[in-house]
Amino acid sequence: MASRLRFKVVDDAFKKRPVEVSVPKERPSDYFGKYVFDRKKMFKYLPAKVYAKMCDVIDNGAHFDLAIADAVAEGMKRWAMELGVTHYTHWFQPLTEGTAEKHDGFVEHDQKGGMVEEFEGKLLVQQEPDASSFPNGGIRSTFEARGYTAWDPTSPVFVIGDTLMIPTVFISYTGEALDYKVPLKKSLNAVDKAATAVCQYFYPDVKKVVSNLGWEQEYFLVDESLFSARPDLVMTGRTLMGHDSAKNQQMDDHYFGSIPERVENFMRDIEIQALELGIPCKTRHNEVAPNQFELAPIFEEMNLAIDHNMLMMSIMKRVARKHGFRCLLHEKPFKGINGSGKHNNWSLSTDTGILLHSPGKTPLDNLRFVTFIVETLKAVYDHNGLLKAAIISATNAHRLGANEAPPAIISSFLGRTVSDLLDHVEQMDETENLKVKGKSMLNLDIPSIPHLLIDNTDRNRTSPFAFTGNRFEFRAIGSQANCASAMLALNSAVAEALINFKERVDKQIAEGVEKEAAIIKILKEDIRYTKPVRFDGNGYSDEWKAEAARRGLDCETSCPLMIDTYLDERTVRMFETTNVMTRTELEARNEIKWETYTKKIQIEARIFGDLCMNHIIPVVTKYQSVLIDNVHKLKEIFPAEQAAKISANNLNIIEQISEHESFIVENVAKLIDTRREANRIESEREKAIAYHDLVAPFLESIRYHVDKLEQIVDDELWPLPKYRELLFII
Ligand code: ADP
Ligand code: MG
User: Fold this and answer.
1) Could you tell me which of 25, 266, 577, 620 has the fewest CB atoms within 10 Å of its CB?
2) Do the Cβ atoms of 654 and 631 come closer than 8 Å?
3) Cα 149 to ligand 2 centroid, rounded to whole Å
4) CATH, residue 376
5) Is 254 in the pocket of ligand 1 (CB under 6 A)?
6) Ligand 1 within 6 A of CB of 305
7) Range of the domain at 652
8) pTM
9) End residue of a domain, out of 138, 160, 179
10) Ligand number with the minimum distance to the CA of 280
């Protein structure tokens, strides 16, 4: 019987007991960073001079001097070998969703017939993986397949199992970025330079501005036995069919509810492993949907935070299996309930504090606060289409615009207090002077805001880009995405806004306007200019869609077309002037994005067709035959009129099944034809558009009929674990 597997896996799932987790006897503060070659270990394992040079590289962005590479590698090797490490790998972030690594042993011939453990500086600093095996968008010409990975000394090396992991960038032979880290680091540089220059208006001593990121990672857990009985989950990460269960999230009883023991053990396990790897885990809780959870560490410097997020996602997937779970990082594994995102809390800070923080100590502090808020808004306004393109993907597209996650329009929510403050500055008279000690001073009548007050402003959960106290929270990022995609776009856009702001202020100053007056004058212009991107209402409403279009915000909903924004003149100019990406790199990346989109839908369409024809239709036909048989038999034992009456219900079901069945069979055939036709299109962009416009809609229209059949067909026969099983058995 088709359902035998389903009942067996349900039974299996029920029997699972929570796995014991060995909790270290020490406190988290004792084992935090145990497997990281951090400063403490550098100090211990490196010669003093080398240690000092490394600190200069990490803290001040000094150039890494190759002369110290051997000493650094030797120190790392000694430390790692004490932990039982035998291998090392360059660990990088190609333009796929995950990370890549290739392990090599420390062993070398000792020239006396034996082996010796060796790790030379040049192996630490650079390697040459074959770039043709990773997405490169045509940058790599076939005769020159080489790519380089180069060590990123600002992200510390760490140990997983028996391997020393070395965070690296990945570039082509001709120098173009083939990863997320290179442009991310360039964007961090750009925003550092631009923000430092603006900061110096207020605090002349500031030398460096750092970007921070605090990510909140949402995910689902599904029992491993149930998961493996769903080919769609296994192959695509989401359920391509499945009717709503009677109960899902309507009772709001999961969010912040008590965490089931089996899940809590999993959480404890990943937290211990994360803390040992220096990831400062802090928060964990149930999320809105059943079997959905969230994890958030304390924010960190952005480059490190992103490495940590990539690492965390792989830890979660690995550890989940140990606990008999599968961790789903897909943005929308289940239809009809909330999907998963990854809120990115973004801020800028100097060594003296966070620039989006309003301490209200001096009027100048408040002017600085307003400046950074307004120029961030300007970045978001000028590049709202790009920010959307930076977070969109075939998988995240299921979330955006649906009634739960941020809408497919990027706007910003500031809250009452900050909005009032901007309105106030807009009305200020920058020519009004105060007399202080006989000197004429500008009247910096900017109200200060106690920090608590901002923190307590109502939070607009529908806003994709909300100010939340001392940071902006970009909420549209997909749960399985590399945060770098969104963060490098945001950093670069903010850098551009700040550069432009400074040019205009300096021009005023050169014309004899006082510094503060010049700043206020330009801010007033920008407050007026950015009004269209400020929106405090309900981002899910239809009125907002119409209003946003009137305001000129990007309202595109097709994923392949959103990606076009990367090649807008305005975007290319922004990335080129901030020195983050070249046109060639942008073009190559777009090819990859379109190709990835197509492949995702292609795989879904294949699995879906297979499930329909090999899993659903045979079972449905079998059930229909049982009913037909029953109708015949009733005729044998009852008079015709009575038999007809008794069979009415079954006849009705037989007919319904036929209708759904013929729709499915006909449309799966059409789906296959459409896909074949789309595959013949040469251009990646046009192909992606065809997959979006013509292929993907079949998945939805056919699914409707499969889900109807799920409700009609005998539960005992249904071959796939149902939502009520996937989402509630834990
Ligand atoms: P929420 O209420 O949105 O869940 P949390 O207090 O859990 O907020 O914080 C979410 C994330 O924001 C955490 O990673 C936290 O460390 C981070 N965060 C807090 N302040 C800042 C900041 N100034 N810049 C960047 N991230 C921050
Ligand atoms: Mg949050």
Assistant:
1) 25
2) yes
3) 34
4) 3.30.590.10
5) no
6) no
7) 597-726
8) 0.94
9) 179
10) 1
